[in-house]
Structure prediction request, 352 residues.
Amino acid sequence: MWAGFAGYLGFLATAPRLGRRVVWGTILVLVTAFAVAPVLLSHDVYSYVDYARLGVRHGLDPYVHPPLAASGDPAYAHVAWTEATSAYGPLFTLLTYPLALLPVGLAVAVLKGVAAGSVLGTAVLTARIAAWRGVDPLRAAAFVALNPLVLVHVVGGAHNDGLAMLLAMASIAALLSARELSAGATLLAAITTKLSAASLAPFALLGSGKRSSLLAGALVGVAAIGAAAWLAFGWDWVHGFGLAGENQSRTSYMSIPILAARLTGLDPDVTRLAAALIFAVTIAGLLIWTWRGADWLRAAAWATLALLLATSWLLPWYLIWLLPPAAISRDRPLQLLSLILTAYQLGARIPL
Prediction:
């Protein structure tokens, strides 16, 4: 991981001189290599498959029943969170339902392909938006797709954060192209894939030239996805968003509030509360800054960094939430902090 990070830094420094073919060729080769590798470190992808099989093969609502409810299923043996119901958005769950018809190994391979395609698509959109904003597109693409945490955890672990960010960046591209209806619908699709994409919403709304059109697009998305989710799960899918929020009651060893508790000797609940208060004040300040005319994309990127620093449940694949908006932010300190946070998370989730 450290060798990969060193290579990543060198590539970022030289990307404009290396040229388009070398940069995109390297991205394509490495993303493909991690896509065809076995599932790395986290087994969350097996949970995705298991939830789909619960609904399709066992007639059980994954927002009500955990994998333990069908312990004889072939996917169950690989699931880590056997007593947890789904915390993922209804759009993502519905998209995985057809995979229940496939053998478990093939379903996992499809999800690895989706993760790889999502990272490549996110890199393409990041490069395009970067060019619009006067940022070097090759460096922006490499900043996202060659990050070791993205390659190992998002592609290698087939996490759905890649798909959520692909939709979020598509929404940003649509908004910057004055296609507010599409932007609203696509942002809603990102949020109903994974709730973390919602951090972009208030800044996109403040930065939009046609807020009513953006809201109308989001309402269309709510109606379409909400109707499909209701037909499949009733209102149980709403509990998934609650579970995603409840993850903040958990702690991961390398989250910043828990690190602060270890270093200071304070009770972890005290540092978590302090982090939450600082986060709330920071978001309020960023929203005011945006309302007064600041670059909403830059503010949204800082808000995402604040979220990662404040959460007590920080996992290495969450860095993909930050990397694309940071790459197009035109903010060097923010990008440097993104690299520092990447370095800090390099060893996370790797067993000793």
